Amino acid sequence: MNDMMSKIKIIENSEYAVQAKGLIKQFGDHKAVDGVDLRVPKGMIYGVLGPNGAGKTTSIRMLATLLKLDGGTAKIFGYDVEKDPHLVRQLIGVTGQYASVDESLSATENLIIFSRLLGLGRKEAKNKAVELLEEFGLTEAAKRPLKHFSGGMRRRLDLAASLISQPPLIFLDEPTTGLDPRTRNQMWETIRRLVNGGSTVLLTTQYLQEADELADRIAVIDRGQVVAEGTVNEVKQSVGSSSLHLSMKNDNDKQRALSLVEKVLNVQSTVSMEGGKIIAPMKDANRMTDLLLAFREADIPLEEFSVQKPTLDEVFLSITGQTNVGSDNKDSQEVSA
Amino acid sequence: MSNTSTNALNRQRSSFRQSVRNSFTMAYRGLIKIKRTPEQLIDVTLQPILFTLMFTYIFGGAIAGNVSNYLPIIIPGILVQTVITTSVVTGVQLREDMDKGVFDRFKSLPIARIAPLAGSLLADTVRFTIATTLTFTMGYIMGYRPEGGFSFLLLAGLLVIVCAWAVSWIFAFLGVIARTASSVQGMSMIVLFPLTFLSNAFVPAETLPKLLEWFSNINPVSHLVTAIRELTNSGIVGWDFAISLIGAAVIVAIFAPLTVRAYMKRA
Ligand SMILES: Nc1ncnc2c1ncn2[C@@H]1O[C@H](COP(=O)(O)OP(=O)(O)OP(=O)(O)O)[C@@H](O)[C@H]1O
Ligand SMILES: [Mg+2]
Fold first, then answer.
1. What's the rounded Cα separation, in Å, for the pair B29 and A102?
2. Ligand 1 pocket list (CB less than 6 A)
3. Which domain holds residue B105?
């Protein structure tokens, strides 16, 4: 506990949990990470998003002292990962993309050994193991060898092992990949709890929904570079804001409807090519009631009425320069009229 | 866990005491693994038993006239051969271990960098001890009654364990630099066979062709075998005993730093 206090004191010196500038990692002649800048303020969940091979894992491994930097600098709570790796390791917990626990040992033995390595006494280590297993719902399986663990159990044990020393910064590389929806929700809960307890979490994910759900800020990485950064909303807005989609029962009402929309919402709107929908940017949600009332007064029957926010998927695909945006998975709240 | 320095975090690399502690924890891990997968002890249990039986009955008559005359010559030979062979496993297992995800965690913990390496070498002395005990026991069952007595037998066992531990640094080095566990196995065999077979372990060196005799005479394994024979059969701590220890020290002096350097580079 004393130790936890001193860690808190140490990290008060720095405003940021992670400050990376111009990170570079080269494998052969391939630049896996090509000038990544990251700033993670303390006490938040920071999401790093990117497609396969974007360089997420490589970046995290450099920040976690597991991989040498080929260029740039990285500081954890103000301490340089290259100059003070031993110190940095006392401030971080790492849960890698692939389980980093010992397959041939039981869950308890794993936790005891990691605890002992971290300097806990025999008794303390045992207690710590029991406490963590309890917290992660692994008590029943504690004595079984990991070979017989499910993917979700392994993942939880892996996270538990990263929390032994109550590190103020936790790296989670794709913490929910391969988990079923229920287990994923549990993992989300755990991650939120960690942050409520004062820790900072840097996680990577390919699930945009996950970043949306969890992260306070995100960085989108593609081909080794950060292509967008900000709060989830900022990143979404950088691509476009919500829009209103309307379609009429009778095609010949379209012209009247269009002028009505422009009058009530006071915006420029367009008629889309496919399906002849009216699409208008939506700035003020309060005006919707007025618009619907106006339609009723003018006696224009509506076929469909929906508000669509750009999904993180669309944002992601448009930023990372991939096309074929699926139109069927839109994050829309549809109101049939 | 925190010391009393001005800030509780430790800026320095690990102290010597921490290195020793971490290494013992890693050795403890190695022992649990052995306990969990006892099948990996098959080589250290079967080899001494089979070799003692085979060599004694196949070569005994031809080389020494009869079995009981051959035992004092062959048991030290088999002992050395078996225990040195066992040390190959160190490298193979180290490679397998390093390829596993758990090594990532070891690397991310604020522990002595050398601990995973030192720990696994430490745990392997248990295998050497098992192999040593079984070889002597098999010999005893077949009628081997070393003249030197029990305390010299113990000293001989200790000597062979120390030397095997030293040799295991060679294989640990191969384990660290190799890409796959099976390539470690292959490379190790190339090192191992000349060392153990081109020695006086099974046949007197004088019966070998000139070139091989010359190699056998400079082969440290021969000196180790001779040292063990002198210890067990006549209770002599001789020149070969010293040479064996010096040889062991030289191997460690060369290969421990090499291995640690290669390991750190990868770690
Ligand atoms: N040890 C290595 N040797 C050579 N190339 C590597 C190595 N590690 C990663 N790479 C390459 O670097 C690039 C980035 O890999 P990285 O694992 O960081 O991607 P990622 O964003 O984590 O992807 P994923 O979502 O699939 O986990 C990839 O092209 C990969 O092939
Ligand atoms: Mg990855």
1. 9
2. A 27, 32, 50, 52-58, 97, 206
3. 16-266
